[in-house]
Amino acid sequence: MSVDVVVAGGGPAGLATALYASRAGLSVVVREPRGGTIDKACGEGLMPGAVTRLARLGVDPAGQELRGIRYQSGATHAEAYFRGPPGRGVRRTALHEALRGAVAAAGVEVERRAVTEVRQDERGVVVDGTPARYLVAADGLHSPLRRSLGLDVPAGRRRRFGLRRHVGVAPWTDLVEVHWAEHAEAYVTPVGPGEVGVAVLTTRRLPYDAQLAAFPVLAERLLGEPTSAVRGAGPLRQRSRRRVAGRVLLVGDAGGYVDALTGEGISLALAQAEAAVGAVLAGRPASYEASWRRIVRRYRLLTEVLLAASEAPALRSRLVPAAGALPGLFGWCVGELGRPA
Question: In angstroms, what CA-CA distances link 19 with 64, 106, 109, 279, 340?
């Protein structure tokens, strides 16, 4: 049986693509080899634009309101607030459950299988024997489909990794806190009335507790018991030559990723999912490349600038004091992060 779209990957990017496709009247099937609720090491802070896009899809995951971002280094800090509606701290599992529920309610079939073989011509694709008009690859950071299509690009020698664990402690702020140390950042996101998520981004391959030792001010606040196991992800930077290969479109992390430094992953994935479906509806898959570049341009500029500054020791140590000394600039950056992608 032929379908309009096969979506490879049942994470947030893939499920959102399926929802957009179904709402547009397209026949769609999702293929995901993992069963049940899927967790992932991430910061779990949804920017305001992501909350808005999810609401338009009828998805409203439970979590904690986020009003802005605070940078902290020792006793020095700077904070700024989102313009307009708040963001939300949401457990990744809660987000996935909410999206799964919406997909089920829409009548979209999710098959527990991976996509392994893709053949295509000018008329369509054949995905493991299933004929379809298009394939959307939303199979994650280390996308096997990106690699099989010959789109992978070496990401360079400097590699960053993410580690995340939850702690049973009442949130002490409604801001995402970013704690800066010499070789790492720790991101604290309220995700419930008695729980915070703490994600560490670092270039050093050390155990989670050893990473936290670099943040003594933060460690004093994390007196509760862990409520989840440590999960890891990386290397974070992934590159793709392009996001379209014939009738295959790459959405979410599969299309390339810079870093989690600005926390816009879900916002971008949702915007890309909508754009990919728009290109399919128009019968112009190649147009998705330009849409993708427009969606990620602002994020990539902010992230690359921050990464470049953080990689220079002399600049890294001055980032938080500079943010405090230039509140207008820091506020503008936070406002940009809160703007829809």
Answer: 24, 7, 11, 15, 19
Q: How far apart are CA 258 and CA 327, in angstroms?
A: 25
- 164 by DSSP, 3-state: which? strand
**C-alpha distances in angstroms, 223 versus 100, 195, 198, 218, 219?**
34, 11, 13, 10, 8
Across the beta sheet with 45-46, the strand order is: 45-46, 87-89, 64-66
pLDDT confidence of residue 301: 87
Omega cis (within 30) before 154? no
User: Phi first, then psi: what are they for 289, rounded to 5°?
Assistant: -60, -45
In 330-341, which positions are buried (b, 16+ CB within 10 angstroms) versus exposed (e)? Answer: bbebbbebbeeb
Give the confidence band of 306 by pLDDT, cuts at 50, 70, 90.
Answer: confident
* Mean pLDDT, residues 104-126: 95
Q: Which domains does the chain have, with CATH numbers?
A: 3-46+92-155+237-313 (3.50.50.60)
Q: Residue range 1-14: average pLDDT?
A: 94
Residue 112 CA: distances (Å) to CA of 144, 207, 267: 17, 33, 26
Q: What is the pLDDT of residues 140-181, one digit of tens each?
A: 999 999 999 999 998 777 789 999 999 999 999 999 999 999
Annotate 183-248 with three-state secondary structure: CEEEEEEEEECCEEEEEEEECCCCCHHHHHCCCHHHHHHCCCCECCCCEEECCCCEEECCCEECCE
Banded pLDDT at 340 (limits 50, 70, 90): confident
Give SS3 for 313.
helix
Q: How far apart are CA 18 and CA 7, in angstroms?
A: 7
Contact by Cβ (8 Å): 163, 35:
no
